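Structure, all two chains, one model.
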Amino acid sequence: SYVLTQPPSVSVAPGQTARITCGGNNIGSKSVHWYQQKPGQAPVLVLYDDSDRPSGIPERVSGSNSGNTATLTITRVEAGDEADYYCQVWDSSSDLVLFGGGTKLTVL
Amino acid sequence: QVHLVQSGAEVKEPGASVRVSCKPSGHPFAGRYMHWVRQAPGQGLEWVGWVYPNTGGTNSPQKFLGRVSMTWDTSISTAFMDLSSLTSDDTAVYYCTRGRGGAFEGMDVWGQGTTVTVSS
């Protein structure tokens, strides 16, 4: 079965750039979606189709997807970006929706 | 703007069943998938399945087959998720969430979550 792999944690200082990866076999051939979840809250879609931002998501948030890795990039990181981030795909071969294990972003 | 309003917290004994409801407000729900996603305490997100209101079709991972039923009641425009034979492993927050379009698309609106606790 298809598996998405995320690093458990990423730490970055305010004002720096955070990169959160999502690994999967030939993930570049799939559409990857990213969610931000803060403690006690429901997830929020921050990127869809690899790199498109829903309305209200700042341009500091961007994404890429190629080969076996998709990446969520947050520039000029702020304290408010501290959260758990999840990648998600739909696996066409199994017709299943899959989430990565999540990455906790810590702003130092 | 669409909101998804879920039913309140539930406490169930092992072996029982639970029903969680989810009612969209603000705009008609036509043409979108309704997904169910759960999150056990301190854990990540787990997809439970989807229901497509236009047809009533459903899909869910093998681990839930036979235990989960997802339906859409057209008369009251409400989605339901029924989970049976509950164990402590089913203790989680259950979210309903709207797909942007097809099953392969992201989920752009989320309910507030319903806490289901399974305990004797």
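Strands of chain A lie at 9-12, 18-23, 33-37, 44-47, 61-66, 69-74, 83-91, 96-99, 103-107.
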